[in-house]
């Protein structure tokens, strides 16, 4: 039975050097091999890209306030949404949770000193920066107008924009994510603390493991498809050119072979974060732990065989369409298992509504809506009608923004005290979480209706009857922008004025809470040993009694 | 702990044996990733060849099978030298023997690139660059040569990286007090080299052999 530390003890500031105090020179940051410092480098980078991509889409939403063109030209409009897509997918969403929270927490959660290859870890950040530099360069040079999907033959033969630089930027950042994937897989296999068996791993670690598998096996195919686009564009090798017998659809197959699994690169880590947060704030063991693990791994696996559902209207054989449609329904099964199990985890929990929990519950609702509309799109008879409409835009923003970004903010708030050693202002954080939820729905729910009514995506003018929905969506985007600016403000504020965080402010289980906040450079003073499973919030198979004090700190029997 | 061991040991590993195990594990994962990379190219080749079987045979007949076959022999021999280096270090042969094997590996790699360079020059002379003026009339032949240049080019790039890795190992790898097999970089380099070799064994029949039988 664990004994709770007195409040005074818990608030003691550990008088030990933290990773933040291990040097302040530029070299100690830009040459850092400490996974925690690299995570901070990534966090700063993706925040910059998040606001760049956000600025581009702000102009797009501004343009869509009125049916006619009044802010930007059609050509600029194309370049804006392309920049938004490329930056948000590859420079924010893919690295968001794995390279920041994952990098910081994976070694801590498995009781390791660092990741398996610390120098490779730093190298992967520099690759991301190289790719980012090329992508920003395209913006300065005048942008790209192909859409984030680089579809041939437009990208290879007709586009007069900077396709090569953009494709090279994505190519480079792709190798960065392969490096991260290799590193994480080796770390989970080889560096788990004594006693930490596979089925005692926290679900966040499992989700990073599954994500890394997808990164390692899908990203090279993106790299090769972009390489072929670059070869055709610069060296004029006619690979996708129909005039010489080439097949533009071949590009779509190669591209979506990566880009559909990429959806799972973006959403699996989010599922991991949500599993940590919901168990902690419901004071519950996760419902059906092994099923949660199998669901993560099977989403990663089945995700490789559904790419064709992006191409239902490209003229593929109806039999191929049937198979891809069926497999897309199959991949929804493990996703549904996860949603049901999170819900069941809440049952008879002692739920409290701190900001991370609000974000996590937001994830639960929005991901469910995104997933269910995904089933609409997996049904060919419906997909044919709503292909390339705002219905699709709304669907994937529910998954990507409603799901992944909500979970990213959940994790950011949950682990902020651990990462920075400071507490964020709870009231502001709850307000931002709620504002984000409403802003999100106001922005994207009208887009389902727009799509259902037939408004195509990627047009900068539209018939006047669509205006009311577009005005709602653009107004929602304003709310959403404010909701994103808020955490940026108060989290920075908390770095200086926030209260010092105790080691375990949430009374959470998990190894990362057993070391100092912020952790020392070597993570743990003593090698931790693990003799219980994760989420040890109450005895197994017995729900906590309403008046029972929650257990603290996994595996600690002091 | 001796100085050379310390110079090779990296965080977060307690000893060279576990670091070596991790490096080997990591490179296998990376090789899986590489297979998917070349897999994409081979898929593109397969799709185009199914679409234009005759053009692909006609185009493949234009490749230089002498250069291609010679290069296959050179690269297989280089892998043999690499395996020899690994065996020599396993049996604790004298460092000079190991270094000689590694140097032979790198030299054969360079020979491959040199032969490839002559072949490229010949190809360009024959007008086999598939942009602009192109020597072959068959529709689809351009596709073959587009893929030929990309696949062999990417392979040559991989080989160049491999030569760099083997060169580094030759110069700095096994000091007088350290057996090569203790060095975590040794097996990583060897596995990468063999992958580049295996890829070539797949590319060779795809590029040089179609249309030559019967």
UniProtKB/TrEMBL annotation, chain A:
A GO CC annotation given for this chain: plasma membrane
Domain Cytochrome oxidase subunit I profile: 29-531
Membrane topology of this protein: Multi-pass membrane protein
Biological processes, Gene Ontology terms: electron transport coupled proton transport; oxidative phosphorylation; respiratory electron transport chain
Record keyword Heme present: yes
The reaction(s) this protein catalyses: 4 Fe(II)-[cytochrome c] + O2 + 8 H(+)(in) = 4 Fe(III)-[cytochrome c] + 2 H2O + 4 H(+)(out)
Enzyme Commission number(s) from the entry: 7.1.1.9
GO MF annotations in UniProt: cytochrome-c oxidase activity; heme binding; metal ion binding
Signal peptide span: none
Location within or outside the cell: Cell membrane; Membrane
Pathway: Energy metabolism; oxidative phosphorylation
Highest taxon above the source species: Bacteria
Top EC category: translocase
Stored SUPFAM superfamilies: Cytochrome c oxidase subunit I-like
Region listing for Disordered, in residue ranges: 517-558
Role according to the record: Cytochrome c oxidase is the component of the respiratory chain that catalyzes the reduction of oxygen to water. Subunits 1-3 form the functional core of the enzyme complex. CO I is the catalytic subunit of the enzyme. Electrons originating in cytochrome c are transferred via the copper A center of subunit 2 and heme A of subunit 1 to the bimetallic center formed by heme A3 and copper B.
Protein name: Cytochrome c oxidase subunit 1
Organism: Alsobacter soli
Gene giving rise to this polypeptide: ctaD
TrEMBL record, chain B:
Record bears the keyword Isomerase: no
GO BP of this protein: aerobic electron transport chain
An annotated Gene Ontology molecular function: cytochrome-c oxidase activity
Membrane topology: Multi-pass membrane protein
InterPro entries the UniProt entry points to: Cyt_c/ubiquinol_Oxase_su3 (IPR024791), Cyt_c_oxidase-like_su3 (IPR000298), Cyt_c_oxidase_su3-like_sf (IPR035973), Cyt_c_oxidase_su3_a-hlx (IPR013833)
GO CC field: plasma membrane
Gene3D superfamilies recorded: Cytochrome c oxidase, subunit III, four-helix bundle
Top-rank taxon: Bacteria
Main location: membrane
Protein name as it appears in the record: Cytochrome B
Organism expressing this protein natively: Alsobacter soli
Lineage start: Bacteria, Pseudomonadati, Pseudomonadota, Alphaproteobacteria, Hyphomicrobiales
């Amino acid at each position: 039975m664990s004994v709770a530390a007195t409040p005074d003890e818990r608030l003691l500031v550990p008088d030990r050097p933290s990773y933040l105090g291990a040097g302040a020179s530029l070299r100690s940051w830009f040459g850092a091999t400490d996974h925690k410092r690299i995570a901070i480098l990534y966090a700063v980078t993706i925040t910059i890209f998040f606001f760049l991509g956000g600025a581009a889409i702000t102009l797009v939403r501004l343009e869509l306030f009125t049916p006619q063109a009044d802010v930007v030209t059609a050509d600029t409009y194309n370049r804006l949404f392309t920049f938004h897509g490329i930056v948000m997918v590859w420079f924010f969403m893919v690295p968001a949770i794995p390279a920041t929270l994952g990098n910081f927490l994976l070694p801590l959660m498995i009781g390791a000193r660092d990741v398996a290859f610390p120098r490779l870890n730093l190298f992967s950040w520099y690759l991301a920066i190289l790719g980012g530099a090329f992508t920003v360069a395209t913006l300065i040079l005048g942008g790209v107008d192909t859409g984030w999907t680089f579809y041939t033959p437009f990208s290879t033969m007709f586009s007069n924009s900077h396709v090569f630089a953009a494709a090279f930027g994505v190519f480079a950042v792709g190798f960065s994510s392969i490096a991260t994937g290799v590193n994480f897989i080796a770390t989970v296999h080889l560096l788990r603390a004594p006693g930490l068996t596979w089925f005692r791993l926290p679900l966040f670690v499992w989700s990073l493991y599954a994500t890394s598998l997808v990164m390692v096996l899908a990203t090279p195919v993106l790299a090769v498809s972009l390489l072929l686009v670059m070869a055709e564009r610069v060296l004029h090798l006619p690979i996708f050119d129909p005039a010489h017998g080439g097949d533009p659809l071949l590009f779509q197959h190669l591209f979506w072979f990566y880009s559909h699994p990429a959806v799972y690169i973006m959403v699996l880590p989010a599922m991991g974060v949500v599993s940590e947060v919901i168990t902690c704030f419901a004071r519950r063991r996760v419902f059906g732990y092994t099923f949660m693990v199998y669901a993560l791994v099977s989403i990663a696996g089945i995700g490789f065989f559904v790419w064709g559902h992006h191409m239902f209207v490209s003229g593929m054989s109806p039999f191929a369409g049937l198979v891809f449609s069926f497999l897309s329904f199959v991949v929804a099964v493990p996703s549904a298992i996860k949603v049901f199990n999170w819900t069941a985890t809440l049952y008879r929990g002692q739920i409290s509504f701190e900001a991370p929990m609000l974000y996590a519950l937001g994830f639960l609702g929005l991901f469910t809506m995104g997933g269910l509309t995904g089933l609409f799109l997996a049904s060919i008879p419906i997909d044919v009608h709503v292909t390339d409409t705002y219905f699709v835009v709304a669907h994937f923003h529910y998954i990507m923004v409603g799901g992944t970004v909500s979970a990213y903010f959940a994790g950011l708030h949950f682990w902020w005290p651990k990462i920075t050693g400071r507490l964020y202002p709870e009231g502001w954080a709850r307000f931002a979480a709620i504002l984000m939820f409403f802003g999100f729905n106001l922005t994207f729910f009208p887009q389902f209706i727009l799509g259902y009514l037939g408004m195509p995506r990627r047009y900068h003018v539209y018939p006047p009857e669509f205006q009311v929905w577009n005005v709602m969506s653009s107004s929602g985007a304003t709310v959403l922008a404010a909701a994103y600016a808020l955490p940026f403000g108060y989290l920075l504020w908390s770095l200086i004025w926030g209260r010092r965080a105790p080691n375990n402010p949430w009374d959470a289980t998990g190894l990362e809470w057993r070391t100092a906040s912020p952790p020392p450079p070597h993570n743990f003073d003593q090698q931790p040993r693990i003799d219980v499973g994760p989420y040890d919030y109450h005895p197994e198979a017995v729900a906590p009694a309403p008046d029972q004090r929650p257990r603290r700190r996994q595996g600690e029997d002091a | 702990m001796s100085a050379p061991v310390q110079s090779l040991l990296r965080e977060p590993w307690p000893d060279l044996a576990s670091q070596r195990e991790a490096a080997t594990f990591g490179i296998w994962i990376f090789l899986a990733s590489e297979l998917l990379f070349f897999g994409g190219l081979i898929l593109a080749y397969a799709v185009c060849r199914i679409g234009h079987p005759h053009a692909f045979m006609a185009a493949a007949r234009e490749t230089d099978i002498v250069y291609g076959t010679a290069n296959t022999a050179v690269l297989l021999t280089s892998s043999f030298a690499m395996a020899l280096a690994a065996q020599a270090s396993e049996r604790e042969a004298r460092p000079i023997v190991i270094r000689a094997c590694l140097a032979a590996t790198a030299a054969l790699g360079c020979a491959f690139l040199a032969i490839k360079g002559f072949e490229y020059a010949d190809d360009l002379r024959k007008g086999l660059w598939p942009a602009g003026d192109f020597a072959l009339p068959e529709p689809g032949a351009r596709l073959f040569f587009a893929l030929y240049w990309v696949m062999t080019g990417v392979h040559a790039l991989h080989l160049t990286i491999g030569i760099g890795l083997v060169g580094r190992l030759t110069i700095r790898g096994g000091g007088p007090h350290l057996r090569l097999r203790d060095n975590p970089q040794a097996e990583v380099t060897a596995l990468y080299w063999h992958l580049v070799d295996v890829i070539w064994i797949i590319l060779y029949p795809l590029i040089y052999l179609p249309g030559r039988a019967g």
